[in-house]
Structure formats: C-alpha cells, structure tokens
Amino acid sequence: MRTVHLVLLRALGVAILLQFYFAGVGAFAAPRDDKSFAIHEVFGMAVIPLLILLAIGAAALARQPGRVIGWTAVPLGLLVVQVLIVEIGKRIGGGTEDHTTTGGLIVLGLHAVNALVIMFAVGRAFTMARAVEPATAAASA
C-alpha cells in the first residue's frame, strides 16, 4: 500500500501540472468565454479531489506516520481555499462579465499562487513518504 500511496502522490503532481496547462489553454483561448476554462474546472473539481482522497486513504492503509498522512491531506484543505479564492474574487470583482475590478483581480491572482502552494505540499508529502522506511510505517501503527 506504501507504493500505491507514492504512485497516487506522483499522479497528483502530474495532475496539478495538467491543471496549469488547462488554465493556460483557457487563458489563451480565442474567443474566451465560460467554456474556455471548462476542462480546468472539471479536472480541478473532480479528478484532483479524487486523487487527494485516494492518496489520504492509501497513506492511512499503509500506516504511514501521522505527519505523512497530514501532509498528504494538506492539498485537500488548500483545494477548498482555491474555490473560496475564486468565489471571493468574483464577488469583489463586481463589474460586468467583460470587466473585473482591481480588487477582484488581486484576489483572483491568489488562485495561481495557492496552486503553487498545493504543488509544494504534494511534493513535500511525496518526499516525506518516500523517506519513511517500510518497517517504520508498519511499526508506527
């Protein structure tokens, strides 16, 4: 199960890189409309949370130390922050569909920064999980 945990964390890292790609596709689509970010939204609301939940479950079943399980769970909390950033940014953004206020842009820009923090957390969880010796993970149960 330890290997499954590591594979899921690696898949999560790749999925987050794909999220950046999908965001770029949406940002540079012409003409840009609500459908431009459809893949980014679906992937971020379905695939990434599923991978995070599976990784948390695999970490627990592998009897990883609490700190490893904790770091594996951090991206889930940060994913909730991602959604909140967008919602708050839209509300502060005001304006029209073709115009966003400066305040809205400042908040919405945090979406990309938080995505980097998520990537860091996944990398940290992977590094910590890989460093745990299999016997240590079983003994910490």
Quick summary of this structure?
With about 140 residues, the chain is mostly helical. The chain contains 5 helices and no strands.
Can you put this structure into words, describing what you see?
With 141 residues, this protein is an all-alpha fold. It has one domain (2-136). It has five helices and no strands. It has helices at 2-28, 38-61, 66-93, 102-131, 134-139. The protein is elongated, with a radius of gyration of 17 Å. The protein starts with a helix and ends with a helix. The relative contact order is 0.16. The model has no long low-confidence stretch (mean pLDDT 92).
Defining key terms:
single chain, 141 residues, mainly alpha, 82% helix, elongated
Structural class, by secondary structure, is: mainly alpha
- Count of alpha and pi helical runs: 5
Q: What fraction of residues sit in β-strands?
A: under 5%
Overall residue-averaged pLDDT value: 92
Count of all domains: 1
Proportion in helices: over 70%
Distance between the termini: 14 Å
Shape: elongated
Return residue spans where pLDDT drops below 50 for at least 5 consecutive residues: none
Instruction: Report the C-alpha radius of gyration, rounded.
Output: 17 Å
Oligomeric organization of the protein chains: single chain
The count of β-strands is 0
The major pleated sheet works out as: none
Sequence of secondary-structure elements: HHHHH
